[in-house]
Write a structure and sequence with these properties.
The chain contains 16 helices and 14 strands. By secondary structure, it is an alpha/beta fold. The chain folds into 2 domains: about 150 residues, Rossmann fold; about 210 residues, Rossmann fold. The structure holds pyridoxal-5'-phosphate.
């Protein structure tokens, strides 16, 4: 059977692989050898699921959004990752990777972060597991995401501002890889999305797949069948989308729709729509679509949503798009803002700006009345209030 999951060599079609410096070769090989035996062991599963239940608060609800359903003419369910501890799906992955790190005998954690969300999730699990943690963050982002920096520090992490390049996520990633090269024996690098060298994209997808495992059970209970007609998610690097679709990826009864960040528009030069605007290249150790110029220099992405502001895309998603297994649309800043206000006013849920890019797909789709649609709300909007308030008048909303 055709599968859209990773193959033995770490590829999804022509995308993926592990393009790492020679000095990391053995470290990545070792991770590749041990990750599946560890995360599939009964001991790991028991600890992981106990923490997901009592620490994260899983299962996250599958909520039938009645007013939004009425508006879009379908049976619309929201998968509420916004209700997790720390406010988004990223904690599912961070918990899994720190348990893996411990079982591998690692004693130090590093991570990189752009908006700070993955940094906070990593700092959180490091506090929980009493592990030293260094988070690399571009100096520009340190200034822009001040509150998350303070959260990480309160949690006991060391935040390391990166002064090279544009001082944003790409530069923080380079610095984290540099650190990993110097301390491969004792350090585990927690990557926050379905990106990076193989086996990270597969590791992260599996750790987030709890989302679709729960959707299956919850749909069976609510609809009498365990699959939806449509799955909808936003994509930055691709982890919440990968978790949402994981157990349905080869089930073609299920249509997959993904929203990437259009920014000011795909033709504006101010965009993070990597699938529409990217070309084949290597970023963060993986062969995938990259926003780059003719000389292969990374083009700085732009989106109103810091969590989608990434110049690459997970290799799984690049392949899903190129095989037409998933329909990917760019949702612009103004469409995402509109969608966020709509969810807030119809259902009383303030979504993260990232998640608003999934909601922004709804007006662009057509449904039949009985279609069952599951949309993942990847995170909550508390962190985005300033942005929402700054734009409320522009949207003609009398908030
Ligand atoms: C980081 C983040 C995203 C984007 O990351 P993915 O790996 O594509 O899921 C989406 N939503 C929220 C709330 C985030 O924090």
């Amino acid at each position: 059977m055709e599968t859209y999951k990773v193959n033995e060599e770490g590829y999804y079609g022509e995308f993926g692989g592990a393009y790492v410096p020679e000095i990391l070769y053995k470290t990545v090989e070792n991770l590749k050898e041990v990750y599946l035996p560890i995360i599939e062991s009964e001991e790991f599963k028991k600890e992981y699921h106990a923490l997901l239940k009592d620490y994260v608060g899983r299962p996250s609800p599958l909520y039938h959004a009645r007013r939004l359903s009425e508006k879009y003419g379908c049976r619309l369910y929201l998968k509420r990752e916004d209700l997790n501890h720390t406010g988004a799906h990223k904690i599912n992955n961070a918990i899994g990777q720190i348990l893996l790190a411990k079982k591998m005998g690692k004693t130090r954690i590093i991570a990189e972060t752009g908006a700070g969300q993955h940094g906070v999730a990593t700092a959180t699990v490091c506090a929980l597991m009493d592990m030293p943690c260094r988070v690399y963050m571009g100096a520009t982002d340190v200034k822009r995401q001040h509150v998350n920096v303070e959260r990480m520090k309160m949690l006991g992490a060391e935040v390391f501002p990166v002064e090279s390049g544009n001082k944003t996520l790409k530069d923080a990633t380079n610095e984290a890889i540099r650190d990993w090269c110097c301390h491969p024996a004792d350090t585990f690098y927690i990557i926050g999305s379905t990106v990076g060298p193989h086996p990270y994209p597969d590791l992260v997808a599996r750790l987030q797949s709890v989302i679709s495992a729960e959707i299956k059970e919850q749909l069976l209970e609510k609809e009498g069948r365990d699959y939806p007609d449509y799955l909808i998610a936003c994509v930055g690097g691709g982890s919440n989308a990968a978790g949402t679709i994981y157990h349905y990826i080869d089930d073609t009864r299920v249509n997959i729709y993904l929203g990437e960040a259009g920014g000011l528009g795909v033709d504006s030069g101010e965009t993070a729509a990597t699938i529409q605007c990217g070309s084949l290249g290597i970023i963060h150790g993986s062969r995938t679509l990259v926003m780059q110029d003719e000389d292969g220099q990374i083009i700085e992405p732009y989106s109103i949503s810091a969590g989608l502001d990434y110049p690459g895309i997970g290799p799984m998603h690049a392949n899903l798009a190129s095989q037409h297994r998933a329909t990917v649309m760019a949702i612009n800043d103004d469409e995402a803002l509109q969608a966020a206000y709509e969810l807030t006013r119809l259902e009383g849920i303030i979504p993260a700006l990232e998640s608003a890019h999934a909601l922004g797909l709804l007006p662009k789709m057509t449904f039949k009345k009985d279609d069952v649609v599951v949309l993942t709300v990847s995170g909550r909007g508390d962190k985005d209030l300033d942005t929402y308030l700054a734009h409320r008048n522009e949207k003609g909303i009398d908030a």
